[in-house]
Amino acid sequence: MSTALSKVATTLPRFAVGKQQIFLPNHVITFISPKPLQPPNLAAFIVPLKFNKLDLRDYLWHAYGVEVRSVRSFISGKPLSKHYESGDGQDPIRHQTRRPKSEKKMLAELKVPFVFPSVPEDLSPWDNDIFKAVTEVSEGNSEDIKNLRVNRRRANVADRPVSNSRISLAKQAEALRLRKEAWSNDSELDDKWVEVEKDIQLPPSK
């Protein structure tokens, strides 16, 4: 009887757990790989902003049977970034600065230390060669598109071939500047436009 009670006692948590059962959770919790000087009894997680310390403690206990002694949480804000949003579906609206959504992290102190597994040296079972080939092709295409955009921005009017209309316009502007000819658009005015000075006799000025 004592052995059965001891087994039940070891399986039950030493803290009060939540009573609400969630069968289809819609939250995502990310386990962060530890830093070089991080002790094995500390585990870092990225959690939703609405998550609290009790939620993480219950989640680790019910999902993995991991007991947590304490939890620390903090919210890290993201720096301002340029946001490019398509206005009419084609041309992006530039120079829109916004702050991305903040990120909430939690640092849990584990009762039993956990050593993060090392990265395997042989990645062939996970098709690493195919992944590298696809990555190289994708990076090459991205670099070509980036260079094309940069060259497009640098291409100004002076680098484009001179058209005949531009040459004619330059000659007309030069003639007007030197007063060699008067400006005219070669269009006849309507009948309603009448020179007032020609039809009205003004009295001589005293």
From TrEMBL:
Residue stretches in coiled coil: none
Keyword flag Nucleotide-binding: no
Transmembrane segments: none
Any one biological process term the GO annotation gives: mitochondrial translation
Stretch list, region Disordered: 82-101
Signal sequence region: none
Single GO MF descriptor: structural constituent of ribosome
Biased composition range(s): Basic and acidic residues: 82-94
Keywords: Ribonucleoprotein, Ribosomal protein
Keyword Ribosomal protein: yes
InterPro entries documented for this protein: Nucleotide-bd_a/b_plait_sf, Ribosomal_uL23-like, Ribosomal_uL23/eL15/eS24_sf
GO cellular component: mitochondrial large ribosomal subunit
Family designation: Belongs to the universal ribosomal protein uL23 family.
PANTHER family referenced in this protein's UniProt entry, alphabetically: LARGE RIBOSOMAL SUBUNIT PROTEIN UL23M (PTHR12059:SF5), RIBOSOMAL PROTEIN L23-RELATED (PTHR12059)
Protein name: Large ribosomal subunit protein uL23m
Species, as recorded: Magnaporthiopsis poae (strain ATCC 64411 / 73-15) (Kentucky bluegrass fungus)
